[in-house]
Amino acid sequence: MEQQQQFRTKRDGVVQVLDGSEIRALVENRDAFARFVDDRFRKLDGDGDGRLSVKELQPAVADIGAAIGLPARGSSRQADHIYAEVLNEFTHGKQDSVSKSEFQRVLSDILLGMAAGLKRDPIVILRINGEDLNEFVDSSRYEPEAAAIFSQVNSGGNASPHQCLLAALRKLTVDHGMPPASDSWVVENIVEPAMQQLGTDQLDQPVSQEAFFHDFKKLLSIITRRLQQHPVIVAHTEKTFEGSGIKRLLSNKFEFDKLLDSVCRGVPKEHKDKTSKGYLRVALDRIADSASLPPYGAVDQVDAVVNEAFKMAKADDGKLVDEAEFKKLLSEILGAIMLQLDGNPIAVSTNTVVHEPMSAPSSLLSPTPLSPVVSSPSE
């Protein structure tokens, strides 16, 4: 939250801060939300049978993904996992269609969850127009940071100028005034034209640090001018996972026990009312939001911590356990994750390019400000 405040006070390029208040206001206004659901349901119900099939739900799932900054389905394992979870929320993994009332109830839960997430971690919408990048190039920061970047991108000593410059651009962030250089739109409209103007494509011999300093500064000046002509809108989020959410959850025994009971009711029982340990990951995902954790598969660094916690608890052997043991294991896993994050917090910064005008307006969340056409997140 402090970082978001800094963006608000430091940058003239802040367009909007999405904190979930508009979503919450929509859902809490019963009449307005009912009209909203009627309109969306009618547009999604292609065959007019009064129910939404899994196929008809797909545009709604895609729009929810776009609204929370996910890349398109099929572009990453992490995103596909979250899309599958959203669809499962609608169908409970069993139904082949849902009624309007079911659609309204689940959509309400999802939107309120999104609003709560945005309240905790607002999305700052930035307009990157070259001013900050120009300031960086002219500042005392440039040479030491360029030297550090050069040592990273030319560690083998045999990279060409073209390779070095492209790799160096990916080391810059929105804090430097650079939009994500790995984004396909940025590559096509900003990076590639600037590289062509610089004219390094014909140079394939190793580059010196002095030559890199000169070419990199010249390239950034060209990019600055292109950004002045073609500003880029970027959604910036910053989140630190340090275990405090788990600590709060575990400290309230009454609420935690209620949550465990709710989770266990939704876990399949097998032989003699016992449950496979294999469902512990499913249960952890259902607790993740309450514990201020990302869904498994969304953040690689947190996934590594979770995997280590499962290893410590010997929770991946697939054995059957009764409900009490299942709850105990889940509590131990959460405790192990909390201790690891407390000792080594994980900070994740995401910058997602928002392309406007929209080529395909949202059919679900429009006209709320939740439906940018987005590309894949950049760490």
From TrEMBL:
Keywords: Calcium. SUPFAM superfamilies: EF-hand. Pfam families: EF-hand_7. InterPro entries: EF-hand-dom_pair (IPR011992), EF_Hand_1_Ca_BS (IPR018247), EF_hand_dom (IPR002048). One of its GO terms (molecular function) is calcium ion binding. Residues 358-379 are annotated as: Disordered. Residues 32-67 form the EF-hand domain. This is EF-hand domain-containing protein. It comes from Panicum hallii var. hallii. The lineage of its organism: Eukaryota, Viridiplantae, Streptophyta, Embryophyta, Tracheophyta.
